[in-house]
Design a protein that fits this description.
single chain, mainly alpha
Length: 138
């Protein structure tokens, strides 16, 4: 979307799109939880079927908006090229993807293990009723 709408910002497209993608995913997830899943607490089969149905709707929406064929994804200039270590050629785009994935994992691990919010999340996951009795909003 950024590439077609703002071609001058192509080198910055990932820097703009990644945080925006996390924000949009969080908002869509919040809307699904507030609009559908909230009413199905305590009914696991209905929750499973509802989330499966929502996934089908979201997949079809993406196909309708972007088309069923694969879309070309170009590399910004700072992700293009490769470097050699002996006979092994490592591309910059794969290295940046690995760095990004490790950074997201580290942040998620820190949040889940070292913050009160992560402790509350783990408590609710382990025992919802006990967490509620301790004052954690479930």
């Amino acid at each position: 979307v950024i590439r077609t709408s703002f071609p001058g910002l192509f080198d910055w497209s990932l820097v703009i799109a990644l945080p925006l993608a996390f924000l949009v995913a969080a908002l869509v997830g919040l809307a699904i939880e507030r609009g559908i899943i909230r009413f199905l607490y305590g009914r696991p089969l209905e929750t499973l079927l509802a989330t499966w149905g929502v996934s089908l709707i979201l997949q079809q929406a993406v196909r309708t908006i972007f088309g069923p064929t694969n879309q070309e994804v170009g590399n910004p200039s700072w992700m293009s090229g490769s470097f050699d270590i002996g006979q092994l050629a490592i591309t910059w785009n794969r290295l940046w993807i690995l760095v990004f994935a490790l950074a997201v994992f580290a942040v998620l691990l820190y949040v889940m293990k070292r913050t009160p919010w992560g402790l509350q999340m783990r408590a609710v996951t382990a025992n919802r009723r006990m967490a509620a009795s301790m004052g954690i909003k479930t």
